[in-house]
Amino acid sequence: MPLIRINLEKKILTSFLLANCSSIAFDYFVRQKLGGTNMTFHYVLQFPILSPNDYSSRDLRYILPRVLELVYTSWDIKPFADDIWNEADEALKQAIWEQWHENEAVTGGNLWELPDWIEAYPEIETDKTKGIPLPPFKWDGELRALIKAELDAYYARLYGLNRKQLRYILDPADLTEKELNDILDPYEEVSDPLEPNGYNERCSKSTFPGETFRVLKDKEIKLYGEYRTRRLVLEAWNKIQFGG
Asked: I want to staple 161 with a disulfide (CB 3.0 to 4.6 A). Which of 9, 12, 60, 165 is the partner?
């Protein structure tokens, strides 16, 4: 198993790499490359990791605050958050502020209360003027699932996928025979893929010989009574596309 070291001077670029490699689209692409359970550098060199030049400033303001919310959930991660904050321009800092306050509105937020043990770690900046002036994001499992889905949908668009192709990645049984035959065409027979009865009916009629994320799907159906990731990702896709 290869060890990949991140040697990026800017932590903002590290955040992009983290988000990219954690996306469900990237997960699917990697699965298609691997010929078994052993991964070598021969495979790694083929992975479709987006270049820093592929991101616009708008992408930056969308992706990075969400990455920060997922990562910066405890004080010991503050040095990473400080680096991001100190590299950010005013527009990005504003986006981070807004992301933090959205978390606060849902969870109640964390207070700026430094833990006693922080004195033993001088690398953790406690001066608000020298690093991020915000305490860690408050952990909330439901909110994290939503943010992950937003990043999954956003990266699917960055990869140039249409909604039908994203539906295929999430669950190929969701597509009709016509949709599968024209997988490169954005045309969809299904007007509302999120309608649960229609989705269940398509899955029951599907004769597609393979699956993509069966373990995830089965686990979520057992836990939540639905394939939650699929629903959240497609809802996020619609929100991004239609600005809702």
From this structure: 165
Count other Cβ atoms within 10 Å, centred on residue 216. 17
pLDDT tens by residue, 2-51: 676 666 677 888 899 999 999 999 999 988 888 777 777 777 788 888 99
Gap between the Cα atoms of 169 and 173, Å rounded:
10
Angle CA 25–28–30, to nearest 5: 110
In the chain, the N- to C-terminal Cα span, in Å, equals 42
**Angstrom distance (rounded) from CA 146 to CA 243:** 16
Is 84 in the same domain as 169? no
Q: List the domain range (segments joined by +) for residue 42.
A: 11-130
Task: Evaluate whether 17 touches 6 at the Cβ level (below 8 Å).
Answer: yes
Total structural domains within the chain? 2
Kindly state whether residues 26 and 122 are assigned to the same domain. yes
- Nearest-Å Rg of the Cα atoms of the chain is 20
Phi-psi region of 4 (alpha: psi -120 to 50; beta: other; left: phi over 0): beta
- In terms of C-beta density within 10 A (0-12 exposed, 13-18 middle, 19 or more buried), how is residue 123 classed? exposed
Based on the domain organization, do 23 and 116 belong to the same domain?
Answer: yes
Q: Classify each residue of 4-30 as buried b or exposed e, where b means 16 or more C-beta atoms within 10 Å of its C-beta.
A: eeeeeeebbebbbbbbbeebbbbebbb
Q: Is residue 2 part of a domain?
A: no
Provide the 8-state DSSP code for 212.
S
Looking at the chain, list the stretches that DSSP marks H as alpha helix, in order from N- to C-terminal side.
11-22, 24-33, 41-44, 57-71, 78-87, 90-107, 141-158, 163-170, 177-181, 196-205, 214-224, 228-242
